[in-house]
Here is the input.
Amino acid sequence: MTPEVALQFLHVQLEQYMRERETTRKVLAALPDSGAGYKPDPKSRPAFELAFHIAYADKAFLDFMVTGTFPMTENAAEYGVTKPSEVAPWYMKVTDEALAKVRTLSGEDAAKILDFFGAFQMPAAAYTTFLLNHSIHHRGQLSVYLRPAGGLVPSIYGGSADEPWQGSASA
Here is the structure.
């Protein structure tokens, strides 16, 4: 990937991320504190842990694109996040900070090959796709947890029973 293509790709993907980030924020905010421990199966993560994983991983992937090092400190308490209602505000704050740094990348930085634990070696900009896929995947999991955990499911790609779509019906 040339530096010019990498930078253009990065900016297009960041526009997509910004749209998805708002939806992710809504899903994170929909988890009530009383549902923190809910999990649908003994092998599943508890809802609070899953919510923090989503928020933390978005921050970590954005940081990784800038530093080339993937931080492995996914412990909510270390960040002062102790309950579900704190996840969405924390997510918005740390992703705002990380996005500001990503937006300063040069074309050469965006094209630089980064190694992700030996599993992937891709240009920094290409990790935006991995970030989006990871976030959307886990957000889908969390949205399934919401009702049984006592929350309401927000509109994601269309209305839900709890938040009907408010789009235009005109053609």
Remarks:
- The mean pLDDT is 94.
- The first strand starts at residue 113 and ends at 116.
- The chain has five helices and two strands.
